[in-house]
Design goal:
Length: 143
């Protein structure tokens, strides 16, 4: 679902085209504003790459021995998972910034605004992903 959401976001941005008088300058009014925006961006990145807390639980359930430690497949799995997340989010970030410049909102769907049916479909994908995560967490707490 994240792949579909990401594809919707960047394809709709490309279709919209670069806005008139796009501004690529840094959008801050003071040094403290720049620092706040930097830490806010770090928080966005940390949220995008969430899931690291599940890794230890998964690794604990994997069979492990001295000859075949579980850290090897876990390392490969983590690297591929982060590559997958980057493949989903970097096109959205780069194309969104190219199209809208510094006027892009934190949620690119808010910046797109049209067509409403596409925004609704992407929002419903986000909602279903969140509901699926809640269901997963509830199942985990039952075991």
């Amino acid at each position: 679902m994240s792949i579909t959401y990401s594809i919707i976001a960047w394809v709709a941005s490309v279709k919209k085209g670069v806005i008139a008088d796009v501004d690529y300058s840094i959008k801050s009014e003071s040094t403290s504003d720049s620092v706040f925006r930097f830490f806010s961006a770090l928080g966005d990145v940390a949220f995008a790459y969430a899931g690291h807390n599940v890794v230890l639980e998964i690794q604990a359930t994997m069979p492990s021995s001295r000859e075949k430690p579980s850290k090897v497949p876990m390392w490969k799995g983590c690297v591929w998972a982060y590559i997958g997340v980057a493949i989903c989010y970097f096109p959205v970030a780069l194309i969104g910034y190219y199209v809208f410049g510094n006027s892009v909102d934190d949620n690119i769907l808010i910046t797109l605004q049209r067509p409403p049916w596409l925004i609704g479909m992407a929002t419903s994908l986000l909602s279903s992903t969140s509901l699926e995560a809640i269901r997963y967490l509830q199942c985990q707490s039952l075991t």
